[in-house]
Amino acid sequence: MNPWLLILIGGIVEAMWATTMNMSEGFTDVFWVVVTILISIVSVWFLNLGTKAGIPIGSAYAVWTGFGTVTSTIVGIFLFDQMLGALQFLFLAVLIGGIMLLQYVDSPKVKKN
Fold this sequence. Notes:
This protein is mostly helical. The chain has helices spanning 3-23, 30-52, 57-79, 86-105. It has one domain.
């Protein structure tokens, strides 16, 4: 599997745990706390798989958190009616551009297991 795809899956899962963390009502709803913890472990596991496949940790972490940030923002807009101002939109676009450029310049040497 493409190591960047592993990182992107981890970023999506990271957005899921950010969403469930929000639903935990400040870590007071035990069900959502447990779900958040389990999902965060899965997210970090995908980050780990991507780095083991050869993506440098700095780039992998930047893409993982950046993609999670973008996805969390989209979820916030659609599920929680959060607004996105012009500057936020601009900086999110810069973040997306940075993520794309990191993928372009870091062509990992995929390790064989």
